[in-house]
Specification:
This protein is mainly beta. Helices cover about 10% and strands about 65% of the residues. It has a single domain, classed as Porin. The chain has an 8-stranded antiparallel β-barrel. A hairpin with a 4-residue loop joins strand 7 and strand 8.
Amino acid sequence: MKNALKFAAFALLAGVALPAQAQDAPAYTGPRVELRATYDFVGAGFRNTTDFQGRGTFGDDTSNEGTNIGGEVGFDIAAGPAVVGVYAGAEFGETQILALARPYRFDTGNNYTVGARAGFQTRGVLVYAKAGYSNGELKANVLSGGSTTLFNGYDENRDGFHVGGGAEFALRGRLYGKLEYTHHRYDRATISTSEEVRFSRNNLTAAIGLRF
């Protein structure tokens, strides 16, 4: 995964060094497909639902980081001076999160996204904002000393949403590069009769793609 991230960053830098296709305003429209490499910062917070008359308290926040690799397909159209589009993506990787002072561990898994974006060209670069639906895996593992029935009925696929933004720029011919930040937040998961876990990701992504 780390090698994939380095490769994507190198590809972007190499593409910038190449002369872009001769055009004053690159056409950021039409269907596209891209390869993505992502730095994945994962956070989890644990909530005791019995405290404060059921309102609960948060504590023992923990986090970890890793790298993912994936892809995205999309379609963009011009809307006056703006560019709007839709996309769907998938990323694959695993980052472990230890539950502090608790006999279990969570492993993140695949992440899937569907959403829409809108942006404007400035000096030949498309600057955009994005938002949509996320579905991420949060796999529970019982460690030594933990109850084997602790996660009975636990659903490791968590629905959620994401927001973010980035910059897309023409490289050579129909190739383009992209740098992007995305924040994902997922539904809270019940892990016992008195405890929940919240789950989020902050992603920095380098991508290289092709328009058709």
